[in-house]
Amino acid sequence: MGRDAALHAFAQNDLDLAVGYFWNVPDTLICDPMVREPYLIVGARSNPVMQEPLTLESYCAAGHVVVSQKGDMRGIVDRVLKGLGARRNVAVSVPFFFPALTIVGRSDLIAALPATMVRTYADRFDLAFQEAPFDIRSFDISAVRHKRQENDPAVLWAIDLLREAAGTTGT
To answer: How many other C-beta atoms can be found within 10 angstroms of the C-beta atom of residue 125?
Structure first.
């Protein structure tokens, strides 16, 4: 379920808890950050671009996969690059992170993906990774619930389990 579908399900009282990257949540929802997640640049181990330290120039010259649930060909990285007076070549847009891992593992494209996912699956997808040659803001993975569930024992229990798994503590 994507972000927009989750927000709609909350509004319809069809969802008690969602976990993911949520931004600009409505006032009717409670957003509990679980983990702050940075990005890494990832590509196939055989990709020549990934065999040397990335520079802004080599990064921009490479072909890229962008992850966008709406199919956009631009994202947060492109806003950062614009501020640096640079632009990258986005070749493919996919709606989720796993297809991006598959594509970069089987091509000469690269992507900016969540660090934990990249480190977890690098060997399985035969990937190399490194930090970006510029700053990309991190993002929060959050547990989101409707204010109707603010004190719901089952939802609070699930959030505690999530915090435990993430190695974080409640506030």
So the answer is: 18
